[in-house]
Design a protein that fits this description.
single chain; about 300 residues; alpha+beta; T-fold; 3 domains; eight-stranded antiparallel beta sheet; 7 helices
Length: about 300
């Protein structure tokens, strides 16, 4: 029997669908929800007592926030993304959002933007045996884009340990599945063509896989007479001239997240070349709303 549960987590709606015996369903769902709650309270920048919030609150004080093995592993993953993206992926860049209005138009002056850039830079984060330290007051970390897929994979591992053979965990633009559906049908996710109607989608198989989409072509912004995604460069504070969105299917949600994140921050042709070399199923939408990749709608 299929059981579904929807909750809010990391500022997004999370849906859990799994097949189990009626008497076991509530217990298994409770295990999954407990893991989501644990990770949200530990890592969410919006949870006042989380590890991330404590690091942010201690910025500029000289006080290190201790990190356990799980946190260090996550920070190591982020550092790899930072390095592979030529330092364009930077979890400290979210503070620059204040320089733009809700429509993505720059409202800060060049001087104000330059001052804000002093508070940006993953390289400024100090990671030692004592823990993590942001050196300047006002600096902020937000690791949601990496924690969310990590949480999905973690819940997937919990379900596998409980013997679940058919499940999907989906949150925002991330997902992971176990096996196929109980009737043998594939787990499917929809990708919409940017030039089609809202119902014109390409449904992709994600059975036993992870999925992530980074970027959002529907919320693109106009900047200096061109279209851009909403990713901001930690170098100059302006929109990154890469793909508007990138979707990837991989063995885990975190692997898919890593591939999509790096590709979206490369120039368009470099992103295509890099994704082709990875050999994973993918789709990218460029700034002219053209689709690329094996998952593109026919």
């Amino acid at each position: 029997m299929m059981h579904r549960k929807r909750v809010n987590c990391f500022g997004s709606s999370c849906q859990l669908a799994l097949v189990s015996l009626r008497g076991e369903a509530e217990q298994i769902v409770a295990i999954a929800l407990a893991e989501l709650e644990r990770l949200e309270s530990k890592f969410s920048a919006y949870h006042p007592d989380s590890l991330i919030s404590r690091i942010n609150q201690a910025a500029g004080t000289g006080c290190y926030t201790p990190l356990d093995a799980e946190a260090r592993s996550l920070f190591d993953f982020v550092t790899v993304l930072w390095e592979e993206s030529s330092h364009l992926f930077d979890p400290t860049v979210s503070i620059l959002d204040h320089c733009y209005d809700e429509h993505g138009q720059l409202k800060a002056t060049d001087s104000q933007l330059k001052d804000m850039l002093k508070l940006v830079g993953w390289s400024q984060l100090q990671l030692t045996d004592e823990g993590a330290l942001l050196p300047t007051k006002g600096m902020l970390l937000d690791l949601t884009s990496c924690i969310r897929p990590y949480a999905i994979d973690s819940v997937r591992r919990k379900l596998l340990k409980e013997g679940v053979q058919h499940a999907m965990i989906e949150m925002a633009h991330d997902a992971a599945t176990i096996g196929k559906q109980a009737d043998g049908a594939n787990w499917l996710l929809g990708l919409r063509h940017p030039m089609g109607s809202r119902t014109a989608i390409n449904r992709i198989k994600v059975s036993g896989k992870g999925f992530a989409m980074r970027g959002d072509f529907e919320r693109r912004i106009g900047f200096r007479d061109e279209h851009f995604g909403r990713g901001l460069s930690p170098v100059d504070g302006y929109p990154v001239p890469g793909m508007l969105s990138v979707s990837v299917v991989a063995d885990s949600c975190l692997d898919a997240c890593g591939a999509a994140t790096i590709a979206r921050l490369k120039t368009e042709q470099a992103a295509i070349n890099w994704l082709q070399k990875l050999g994973l199923p993918w789709m990218a939408i460029d700034r002219q709303l053209r689709c690329h990749g094996p998952l593109s709608p026919a």
